[in-house]
Amino acid sequence: MSGIKTVFRSLRGEGALIAYVMGGDPDIETTERVVGALVAGGADIIELGIPFSDPIADGRSIQEAAVRSLAAGTRPADVLKLVSRIKKAHDVPIAVMTYYNILYSPGLDGFLAEAKGAGVDGLIIPDLPLDETAEYSKLAIKHGLDTILLAAPTTSPERMRLLVKHSTGFLYLVSLLGVTGARSQLGEDTLRLVRSAKRQTRGKIPLGVGFGISKPEHVRAVIGAGADAAIVGSSIVNMVASGNGTDAMLNEVESYVRSLKAATKSRRAAQT
User: Please, which residues have CB within 8 angstroms of residue 218's CB and are 6 or more apart in sequence?
Assistant: First the structure.
């Protein structure tokens, strides 16, 4: 059983918190310390970015994080070495988020083998459409890696069924049209989308919801609507960007994540 699946099974009605950070922003050493703060704050799964020069699914915050990481000389191999160190220090699943060219250029089989050897549990590849996943999925299964596919607000019911069938680990539901980025509030349309997606995923695969989630009340709302996990990224990236690697920044990140994790317990509270 994959580490990601194990986490979802262990929560027993409580929602999961998936926390994103860009690998190498502003440097690998700082990312390692930030991940420590995320884990200390209660993050159940870490989503770790490998920087790419054309991150089409990402908004300004994560795009700028990728630019900083690339400017610091971060390579995919550096992020995978970081995964190895994180795994030695923390018992936490890691889903790597990056773009297909990062895998394709060195060769899919070789990259996935290296990722598995480093301790990666699954991959999120926003620019890999379902129709092109056949070769990738076979190799991911070969190496024991979860294939975390993305569904959008415009995904049809028929395509959603296919995404559920071919996803492992969890299905990543993009909660709004557009790119990543912290929003001040979630609309009722988002909660209707979560409830609709849950009808498709229930009993089959966990549902993670991301894009725009930045406050405990957002986490509470999507978990209450049926999501199995809330995914938070841009607001964490913004804290890292403003903190210059200081202890104060790490404390802020840990406290923030702790507040988000507390909000994932809303489902359990509602059931008791």
Answer: 183, 185, 186, 212, 230
The catalytic position among 14, 25, 47, 78 is 47
Preceding omega of 106 cis (within 30 degrees of 0): no
- Residue listed under structure tokens 């994560």: 62
CA angle 114, 69, 76 (to 5 degrees): 10
User: CB–CB of 224/216 below 8 Å?
Assistant: no
Q: Which two tokens stand for residue 204?
A: 């089959």
pLDDT of 271 reads 41
User: One of 44, 58, 78, 254 is an active-site residue; which one?
Assistant: 58
User: Is 205's pLDDT higher than 90?
Assistant: yes
Which stretches of the chain are DSSP H helices?
Answer: 3-11, 28-41, 60-71, 76-89, 100-104, 108-118, 134-143, 157-166, 188-201, 216-224, 234-243, 247-263, 266-271
In the chain, what are the domains?
3-263 (3.20.20.70)
Look at residue 246 and tell me whether its pLDDT is greater than 50: yes
The predicted structure's pLDDT at residue 1: 76
Q: Is 146 a catalytic residue?
A: no
pTM for this entry: 0.94
What's the whole-number mean pLDDT along residues 199-207?
Answer: 97
The arrangement of strands across the sheet holding 146-148 comes to: 146-148, 122-124, 94-97, 45-49, 16-22, 229-232, 207-210, 171-174, 150-151
- The residue ranking higher by pLDDT, 68 or 266, is 68
- 47 tagged catalytic: yes
